[in-house]
UniProtKB/TrEMBL annotation:
A GO BP entry: double-strand break repair
Lineage top rank: taxon: Eukaryota
Composition-biased stretches (Low complexity): 380-389
GO MF, one annotated term: ATP binding
Residues annotated as domain FATC: 458-490
Residues in PI3K/PI4K catalytic domain copies: 61-390
Gene Ontology CC entries for this record: nucleus
EC number: 2.7.11.1
Chain intervals for the UniProt region annotation (Disordered): 33-52, 359-391
Record's protein name: non-specific serine/threonine protein kinase
SMART domains per UniProt: FATC, PI3Kc
Organism: Haptolina ericina
Enzyme class name: transferase
Length: 490
């Protein structure tokens, strides 16, 4: 999984990090003295009582570690279990994986809701999840997914032959060079927002189309075709891709998950199902926190939609999205109750963000306190947080956390995706975002004839919600103003 995502990995030894783990073996009680018998991680589920007597124990660790080539340099470790099977996990440091854990928890709840619905069950709608186990607020363990590859790697595998062996990267290709003609600047991101005001929509859309022409539209389809043994196999993988992408798109949208670049989508090479990973940005933070805010809501870019041809996104995938959102809206009370964990134990990043709020934003939280509308969350959960400190910081953190979750509630209550995005923009403390806020909001709403501009801010039907979301996610004037690293032309 991770080799393909991060490039070439390098080996190390377990003993370089821990002599106890290196020498550990379940059969040797003397060597095990400091550690005792150990179970394999990930055997305690949130939806069933534990059965320790049936849990797999750790026999020993493989002596080799694989260090991934990335900023955090996570390590892949192989456990030899008492069930005579090998299990691989990724150990990551320097990140609070509690958010990833909770996203997987929410996906699991959503999967059970979809499975309980006859129409969704018959369509096979749902998401593949994986285990995330935070050890503290800086270190955690993630289940390794075998036979998966990032969408970016699948696409690049088809681009390389076109370039006759030359080194190629989607983000540094000829298309990116064209894109940089509009946004070239020595300081990261400083030209994007001013051009919300100075560059018209038709010029942006024209430049995006020019970028698209530099790259074949069917590279993902070619990559999946190369994995298929027959035409029937290809069609089955395409159908699985469509169903899983629809479920993942709607579920991720409800949770406000952002930073959906091509490395954050994994493709199951056996089934064609798409899997989301790395949820560092959720509940709208990619919109209100980043220097160049994400405005599209979800990722439905060209390679994804072209893969579904001859069916259009508005036909095949839309149907699956409508079924998924219908079920999630029906179960919104249950979903919001599960999110209470964020109020009981807010993330460290949210605590930091609450400290950076402007005076205007603090007043907005005070005046627009959503406790009354947030009926799914009992007062006791909020009290548990506010009682942890005698100062006003914890009160502000509680209100900020509740405000984050209110975005999910609005989506489950029929909110218009464009107006929800605008609400997130108003929470940004980035100086350029504040300066050009009105221009950004105008781009988000779309042209005068756009569906999302013409519909109301709330109370939409499921069909209208999905149509607004698809329109916003595929709007060339939004995609053409997205940060280059997101590769919106792909």
């Amino acid at each position: 999984m991770e080799e393909a995502k991060r490039g070439k990995a390098k080996p190390l030894q377990v003993e370089d990090f821990s002599s106890h783990l290196h020498s550990y073996h379940r059969s040797n009680s003397q060597l095990n003295e400091p550690l005792g018998a150990m179970e394999l991680p990930g055997q305690y589920g949130s939806d069933q009582p534990p059965e320790p007597n049936s849990h797999v124990l750790l026999d020993c660790l493989d002596s080799d570690l694989l260090v991934m080539v990335s900023m955090r340099a996570p390590k892949r470790v192989t456990f030899h279990g008492s069930d005579q099977k090998d299990s691989r996990f990724l150990v990551k440091g320097g990140e609070d994986l509690r958010l990833d854990e909770r996203v997987q928890l929410m996906f699991g709840v959503m999967n059970r809701a979809l499975a309980a619905n006859p129409q969704c069950r018959s369509r096979g709608l749902g998401m593949r999840t994986y285990k995330v186990m935070p050890l503290n607020d800086e270190v955690g363990i993630i289940e390794w997914m075998e036979r998966t590859q990032p969408l970016k790697a699948v696409i690049l595998g088809q681009v390389d032959p076109l370039n006759r062996g030359q080194t190629y990267d989607v983000a540094n290709a000829k298309a990116a060079e064209v894109y940089q003609q509009l946004y070239h600047t020595p300081k990261k991101g400083t030209l994007y927002l001013p051009k919300m005001r100075t560059v018209a929509a038709d010029a942006i859309e024209k430049k995006l189309e020019e970028c698209k022409r530099k790259l074949p539209a069917d590279l993902l389809a070619r990559g999946v075709a190369a994995l298929s043994h027959s035409a029937e196999s290809f069609l089955a993988m395409r159908a699985a891709f469509c169903r899983s992408l629809a479920s993942l798109t709607v579920s991720s949208y409800v949770l406000g998950i952002g930073d959906r670049h091509l490395d954050n989508f994994m493709l199951d090479l056996s089934t064609g199902r798409v899997i989301g990973i790395d949820f560092g940005h959720a509940f709208g933070s990619a919109t209100y926190q980043l220097l160049v805010p994400e405005l599209m809501g979800v990722r439905l870019t060209r390679q994804m939609t072209s893969f579904l041809e001859p069916h259009s996104t508005s036909v095949l995938m839309r149907t699956h999205m409508v079924h998924t959102l219908t079920v999630l809206r029906e179960r919104r009370t249950d979903l919001m109750r599960v999110m209470e964990v964020f109020l009981a134990e807010p993330l460290l990043d949210w605590e930091k963000q609450s400290r950076k709020l402007t005076d205007e934003q603090k007043r907005s939280l005070e005046e627009g306190d959503t406790q009354d509308s947030y009926s799914a969350t009992p007062q006791s959960a909020a009290s548990a947080v506010t009682s942890t400190s005698s100062g006003g910081g914890s009160v502000l953190l509680t209100k900020w956390t509740r405000d984050r979750l209110d975005g999910a509630k609005r989506k489950l209550d029929g909110g218009n995706s464009a107006f929800i995005t605008i609400s997130e923009i108003k929470r940004s403390v980035q100086p350029l975002v504040v300066t050009y806020r009105a221009d950004i909001e105008n781009v988000v709403l779309g042209c005068q004839g756009s569906l999302r501009r013409s519909l109301s801010e709330s109370g939409l039907s499921v069909d209208d919600q999905v149509d607004c979301l698809i329109e916003q996610a595929t709007d060339g004037n939004i995609l053409g103003r997205t940060y280059i690293g997101w590769a919106p032309w792909v």
